[in-house]
Write a structure and sequence with these properties.
The complex is a heterodimer of chains A (about 210) and B (about 375).
Chain A lengths: L4 E5 L3 H11 L4 E6 L2 H11 L3 E5 L6 H8 L5 E6 L4 H10 L3 E4 L4 H12 L4 E2 L1 H10 L18 H11 L4 H8 L3 H17 L3 H9 L4
Chain B lengths: L4 H9 L3 H14 L2 H12 L12 H29 L8 H16 L3 H6 L7 H26 L2 H65 L4 H19 L10 H16 L2 E7 L6 H21 L3 E8 L3 E8 L11 H16 L2 E7 L5 E8 H6 L1
Parallel strand pairs in B: 1-2
Antiparallel strand pairs in B: 2-3, 3-5, 4-5
Helix pairs in contact in B: 1-2, 2-3, 2-4, 5-7, 7-8, 8-9, 10-11, 11-12
Chain lengths: ~210, ~375
């Protein structure tokens, strides 16, 4: 058992039990919650390293949980949703990663450790959304050169992740270290959260985040 | 002539329309009751369901118009004759009343059964406005004529003021009640829409999800079937929820998703499609989808991997598609002839349309097929 403490937030008890069974023993699960209010209470009480967070929940969903909790834990969004606005919304609210619910246990534990260490976790789908949102379309005025576009290297990393490559494989493919891959991904995450690019703003405003 | 009442009766009694119309016209001349009968019949006669014979309607309508005009002019002629004769007294209230009735009839004409249904939603359009204007104009004219008949134009002011005061009083009395009625109506309509929506969702869930769940229970002993059926259901439900039940012919994204779905169903694997950008289908895209499908089938058949990743990126000047599995891979030097043939079919296919295909693989490392097409490669080809 590692000392990474985890809280699972999902409104389906069955799903919580499933996740618990899968990752129990590899991380320490310190709490569970089934709605926004409980989640905030449990998080503020147990101060976990990582919160596994469902995007859709009664009472405001994952975005609301992130907003109402005290700073401290890292959030990893875990969702069945494929919709770009959901994913972008939770990332912009502060989640450090997004994985889909059919992720394998090993990959999930990896993701938890990675998020606990302050890194970002991108699923292929999220990488796809990022590429879409930052695509070099000319109709969107670039307000902030640094925040509103991805560097060549960041695009390469995103493309490889979208193709289903793990960080290690990305590193090998691009002849860079895993650490460098991580820093690229983190920088993309930062841009995702701070950029006012039109597409992002639209996705976020659909969810009334701005 | 006006609302098809005569035609309805004629059809019911199976005699020519013309006769019914003549009878009605004579009746109107002799006695006002006929008009009332006509109005009542109009309101309560069932609407004819449109049948094939209405297809020649423009010709029919022309005949109708001619007939109406004929009967109308005969009526007018008789009326003028009666007036000249002194039998019919046009002084007094006759003309205003006729105008009033005409105006009301025109407005009412808007509110027969068919229009009534769409009354709330469709109160616009030039036809509507013209009719409304004519109707209200006639009614207004009638009122002015009645008022001025006894007191001259000063009467308009007096009676107008009286009416205005009465109207304001009425608004004050009935207003709040009417507002509440209206808001109740709106609320009721919203709740009805909600119930309808709920019923639709329930129907859909019943047809799809419940059926699949039943099948899953029956086939619980067959894991491959369970996975495939669950996957298919998930896909279907997702596309329904996102409202993207687009047909595979319309866009590249839809086409590649449907190819992936087909492979999932046939080979019991899951295919994750990540799509960046989209475009309407064309020759090149059709080829790329076909090649990608071939690559998917290969991966599903030979790699023994359970999931296959597809990443497709459409940019203005280039298109890339990656099909990747983490299966057993193969040694490109030692593939048997049949497999090489498939490679060739992917590569040759891409080449024909100015694209390229490359395959990266090694034993134990999985396989990745990369299909690419760009403006530049096309010019070279």
């Amino acid at each position: 058992m590692t000392n990474t403490s985890v809280v699972i937030v999902d409104d389906h008890a069955m799903f919580r039990a499933g996740v618990r069974a899968e990752i129990e023993g590899r991380v320490s699960i310190v709490g569970e919650a089934g709605d926004v209010e409980d989640a905030v209470a449990v998080i503020n009480e147990t101060h976990p390293d990582v919160v596994l967070l469902d995007v859709h929940m009664p009472g405001g969903g994952g975005v609301e949980v992130i907003r109402k909790s005290q700073a401290g834990p890292h959030f990893l969004a875990l969702s069945v949703s494929d919709a770009a606005d959901d994913v972008i919304a939770i990332i912009r609210a502060g989640a450090r990663g997004y994985v889909t619910k059919n992720i394998e246990s090993d990959a999930l534990c990896d993701a938890i450790e990675r998020v606990a260490g302050g890194d970002a976790v991108f699923s292929p789908r999220l990488a796809g959304f990022v590429l879409d949102a930052f695509a070099g379309r000319m109709d969107a005025p670039v307000v902030d050169e640094e925040l509103d576009s991805l560097s060549e290297r960041e695009q390469e990393v995103m493309r490889l992740i979208a193709r289903g490559y793990a960080y290690k494989e990305v590193a090998k493919e691009l002849f860079i270290s895993v650490k460098t891959v991580e820093s690229h991904v983190s920088s993309v995450l930062r841009k995702l959260q701070l950029s006012n690019r039109y597409e992002l703003a639209r996705w976020a405003s659909d969810r009334r985040l701005i | 002539m006006l609302a098809g009442v005569c035609a309805g009766i004629a059809e019911h009694l199976s005699i020519p329309v013309l006769w019914v119309r003549v009878v009605f016209a004579l009746g109107i001349l002799l006695n006002g009751v006929t008009v009332i009968a006509y109005a009542i019949l109009w309101r309560f006669m069932p609407l004819a369901t449109p049948t094939g014979q209405y297809q020649a309607s423009s010709e029919r309508r022309r005949n109708d118009l001619i007939q109406t005009a004929a009967i109308g002019s005969v009526l007018a002629g008789v009326a003028i004759f009666l007036v000249a004769n002194g039998t019919l007294d046009v002084s007094g209230y006759t003309v205003p009343v006729a105008l009033l009735v005409g105006g009301i009839a025109v407005v009412w004409r808007l509110v027969d059964d068919a229009t009534m249904n769409s009354w709330m939603t469709r109160t616009s359009g030039p036809g509507f406005l013209v009719r409304l204007a004519i109707g209200l104009g006639l009614v207004g004219l009638a009122i002015v004529s009645v008022v001025t008949f006894e007191r001259g134009f000063r009467g308009i002011l007096e009676i107008g003021a009286a009416f205005l005061i009465a109207f304001l009083g009425g608004v004050l009395l009935i207003g709040p009640w009417a507002m509440k009625l209206r808001s109740d109506l709106v609320a009721e309509r919203i709740s009805r829409a909600r119930i309808q929506e709920r019923a639709d969702v329930a129907d859909h869930l019943h047809d799809s999800v419940l059926q699949t769940l039943a099948l899953l229970q029956k086939n619980a002993h067959d894991p491959a079937y369970v996975v495939t059926a669950a996957r298919r259901q998930e896909r279907e439900l997702r596309s329904w929820l996102l409202g993207q039940e687009a047909d595979s012919g319309s866009s590249f994204g839809a086409a590649i998703r449907s190819a992936a779905a087909e492979v999932e169903d046939t080979y019991h694997v899951s295919v994750e499609v990540v799509l960046v950008g989209d475009a309407a289908m064309n020759d090149v895209l059709t080829t790329i989808v076909a090649a990608a499908r071939e690559a998917l089938v290969n991966a599903a058949k030979h790699s023994q991997a359970l999931t296959i990743d597809v990443f497709a990126e459409l940019q203005p000047t280039r298109i890339d598609v990656f099909v990747r599995d983490r299966g057993q891979g193969f040694d490109p030097e030692k593939v048997d002839a049949s497999r090489r043939g498939i490679d060739e079919s992917i590569k040759a296919r891409m080449k024909r349309h100015g694209g390229e295909a490359s395959i990266q693989t090694a034993i134990g490392e999985g396989t990745e097929v990369h299909l690419s097409w760009s403006n530049e490669t096309r010019e070279e080809a």
